[in-house]
Amino acid sequence: MYFLLLLACTDPDKPGHSDSEIPESGDSGDSPAMAAPPSLIPRPSRMEAQEGSFVLTATTGIIASGDALATAELLAEGLRLSTGYPLPVTPGSDASGNIILDFDSSLPPEGYKLLVTPDGITLTAADGDGLFWATQSLRQLLPPENFQKKVVPDVAWVLPAVEVEDAPRFGWRGGMIDVARHFFTVEEVKRQIDLFALHKLNRLHLHLTDDQGWRIEILSWPQLTAIGGSTEVGGGEGGFYTQADYQELVAYAAARHILLIPELDFPGHAHAARASYGELNPDGLPLDLYTGEGVISTGLWLDGPSTRDFVEDVWTEIATITPGPYLHVGGDEAIDSDPDDYSAFLQWLQGVVQAQDKSLIGWDEVGTVELEAPFIAQYWWNAENARNAVAGGGQLIASPAAHCYLDMKYDRSNSFGQVWAGYVNVEDAYAWEPVLSGLEDADFMGVEAPLWTEMVTDEAQMDFMLWPRLAAEAEVGWTAAADRDWEDFRGRLATHGARLDNLNVGYYASPEVEWQP
Ligand code: TNX
Fold it and tell me: How far is the CA of 463 from the centre of ligand 1 (A)?
């Protein structure tokens, strides 16, 4: 049922088809311009190529009203930059020569229909998410230069006529950025948010605290950032987000239909907190800051008289500025805590989270604890913990290190990256099934790929580790298992590279892919 491609419209040898002819304006019905065959990532549920193409011109308008307006404006803003066209957004119903965005309540959550004909383009969805994802597909149908941030002259802005009907397999498709080991600025994170959106990823998990850094302002405990945020792995100057910065990221992500998930990692990985406040330590003295690359996972002093007040305070402040329903409490590698103390602490912590009307997420170790449903365990290493979590009424996020840990090297040629979970090349990131045997799709919220940053020091290295592997993970989370095929993905990725190039993404041009120039 998939890919009934009628490629006649893209045959360069057919009379009247030449990529040197740039249409001037207006009606695109029998445009001479050549459209590339549709090639979308993630792969949609159904796509049928049609005869002809649509040409975006100086007279194209975008038609939307009500709840569709914000998405229409974002689409217009993006396309104005590269095309230089006015692309006015107005209410109305006349699709001819225009791009029309509208709602259709019969479609599934986050799903959409995208119809490109020579006369106009129609995007419909049941909800704002679906409409936004439809615009991301639309942009992938345009020439890759549409991703530039400045006007690109002499491009025929042609889209192949096509009918797409699409909806995701999982409602959770995410990436995690560890801003604790190395700090990344608001602007750097926003740039990745845009890239997430392009791939229909809808969750950004920020790992905000770890042994080497505390990255979020806490008004009631200001030394967390003054001291704990003052450095990072390697001893650089570190940094932190003010609460206003954090809220700016939440809003920027939300406008792109991405939910931000904050993580404060306890009871392990708490060295930066204990270096910031003496009262979190048995001898009353703050620890020395830790700037090493290796995992030490200093535990909280669980019996300390201030420790629970501290944890409750920081979570209360974060919950107040987090509109989403999830708080990620960490819970991994609690090597300093005895299992009973760990359980008691996690159960207490779930109460703190519930008091804020939120749901708890933790790394798979929380599967060893009897928690109240609903809760979510993020499966990264121990499948038995993950299964225990499900048996206890929890759900899972699939992040198995061997497929999802984007701090691993792709292959032997890479000069930096971890190898403890093996190499993770693009095929490893793509060709895996998130649902553990014996469990069901419904046991899984979805898929998330973490980028730990002990070895990732700057934006260029972040780009290299995330892309194109995160595009592979996005398809694992979005596309039905039966519609996924590595050879097919590899072919589409070859085309996708030009999009990433136009976005100035320093991705790893893995030799697994025959990248198109
Ligand atoms: C394990 S995964 C960790 C992190 C490290 C990562 C390095 C997890 C929950 N904990 O603290 O950064 O390995 O690959």
Answer: 19
In this prediction, residue 33 carries a pLDDT of 65
Say if ligand 1 is within 6 A of residue 82 CB.
no
- How close is the Cα of 452 to the center of ligand 1, in Å? 7
421 lines ligand 1 (CB under 6 A): no
- Ligand 1 atom with the smallest distance to the CA of 363 is 9
Determine which one of 73, 163, 333, 459 is catalytic. 333
Helices (H), 239-382: 243-255, 271-276, 307-320, 339-355
Query: Is 501 a pocket residue for ligand 1 (Cβ < 6 Å)?
Result: no
Distance (Å, whole) CA 41 – CA 220: 44
Predicted pLDDT at 17? 30
Mean pLDDT of 359-368: 98
Edge-first strand order for the sheet with 46-55 is 46-55, 158-166, 112-117, 120-125, 99-103, 62-63, 89-90
pLDDT (average), residues 218-229: 98
- Terminal C-alpha separation, the chain: 30
Token pair in block for residue 38: 């549709």
pTM: 0.94
Characterise 393 by phi-psi region: left (phi > 0), alpha (psi -120 to 50), beta (else).
Answer: left
CATH code of the region 172-480 = 3.20.20.80
For residue 401, which atom of ligand 1 is closest to its CA?
2
How far is the CA of 326 from the CAs of 2, 319, 329, 353, 397, in angstroms? 36, 9, 10, 9, 13
Catalytic-residue membership of 333: yes
Mean pLDDT of the chain: 94
pLDDT at 34 (0 to 100): 80
* 383-422 pLDDT per residue, tens: 999 999 999 999 999 999 999 999 999 999 999 999 999 9
Domain 19-166 in CATH 3.30.379.10? The answer is yes
Which residue ranges does the chain devote to CATH 3.20.20.80? Answer: 172-480
Each residue's pLDDT tens digit, 167-197: 999 999 999 999 999 999 999 999 999 999 9
Q: In which residue ranges of the chain is CATH 3.30.379.10 found?
A: 19-166
Q: Are strands 209-210 and 213-214 parallel, antiparallel or unpaired?
A: antiparallel
Question: How many whole angstroms separate alpha carbon 153 and alpha carbon 386?
Answer: 53
295 in contact with ligand 1, CB cutoff 6 A: yes
Determine the atom of ligand 1 nearest the C-alpha atom of 418.
Answer: 14
